[in-house]
Amino acid sequence: MKTGFIGLGLIGGSIAKAIRQYFPESEIVAFDKSRETLALATAESVINTAVTVIDENFKGCDYLFLCTPVIYNSAYLSQIKPFLSEKTILTDVGSVKTPIHQEVEKLGLSDFFIGGHPMAGSEKSGYVNSKAVLIENAYYILSPSRPEQKEKIQAFTEFIQAIRAIPVTLDCRTHDYITGTISHLPHVIASGLVNFVRDHDTTDELMKLLAAGGFKDITRIASSSPTMWEHVLMTNRENVSEILGNYIKTLEDVKKLIDAGDSQGIYNFFDTSRNYRNSVPDISAGPIKKLFAIYCDIIDEAGGIATIATILASNNISIKNIGIIHNREFEEGVLRIEFYEGAAQEKAAQVLRRHRYTVYERS
To answer: 101-150, pLDDT tens digit by residue?
Structure first.
């Protein structure tokens, strides 16, 4: 099997590493503008061939992944067109699908193209932070160009399953509306809320001081790359504008309930949201990177945090972040400990409970 990559960043690198893990004999050729990235991927034996121009090295690929930012992917289509063979499945990893499908149709590449969107990510970027496990058990959206691509759709579905992701098939327009609602809108809301607090803070920044804990958690995604989200919104702007308009209407309805003193209406607003959130399955990674954290009660004494850190380190558990929660209006536990993955979170909770600490896990 031969696989090509145009771009080898966080997602491209993670897919390439998964392919190397589950298809060790696969031939992988990669193009990237960063020579350092290509050198590292070669040194790690993730790729066989590194190229700095798109050329005949991409001939004969079974799978060819476009893994550059959404706004650039379309530009590479014409460059790779001469090197596609009848068997090639051409795909991308962008979070917006309709524009690239339109470009594919315009260039006559629909027979080759199946859009892809692995719903996984990280606060960190670049090949250096990529890892095969990143896409494991993550939903991987497939958006075929044509329904009659049955053999290629089946082959690609099985391929995605083989690298341990969960394939889900959607047409491109449905995909863009869904991700616009559950991914793009939350990023707008989080950033808007942070900017609102910044703009309305007191002169001595008391809001900023007291915003630790719950507020910082619910606005965590506002720390995402501004460049990436500019590209995402510009390529999905019609959907996001419509969705944002509907959300504003929801806020206006809540304001009316508050203005009218409608106690039952306000209760119903919070009750329906709580029930719906509790019904959301927790079996896979979604479009917003999940937070892995536990909360722990500790006594205010010298060395308390160091003791916990030592216990976790001695059990080979890596800590991403650790700190005292000063605003605990929405949290249980004095100490918040964040991890890189779910397995570490679960193991840490077990280990600390064995040491008689009170541990809280949030769903």
So the answer is: 999 999 999 999 999 999 887 667 789 988 888 888 888 999 999 887 88
Q: Are 142 and 101 in contact (CB under 8 A)?
A: no
Q: What is the pTM of this model?
A: 0.76
Sign of CA dihedral 91, 93, 98, 103: negative
> What CATH fold (topology level) applies to the domain 292-361?
Alpha-Beta Plaits (3.30.70)
In the chain, domain spans: 2-170, 175-279, 292-361
d(CA 305, CA 298): 8
Residue 173: strand, helix, or coil: helix
Residue 290 CA from chain centroid, whole number? 8
Cα(263)–Cα(258) distance, integer angstroms:
8
Helices 226-235 and 237-259, interaxial angle, to 10°? 100
Q: Is the pLDDT of residue 329 over 50?
A: no
Domain 2-170 of CATH type 2.120.10.10: no
In terms of CATH architecture, what is 175-279? Orthogonal Bundle (1.10)
Task: Indicate if the pLDDT at residue 288 is higher than 70.
Answer: no
For residues 66 and 77, give the distance between their C-alpha atoms in angstroms, rounded to a whole number. Answer: 9
Q: Quick check: 31 and 5 in contact, CB under 8 A?
A: yes
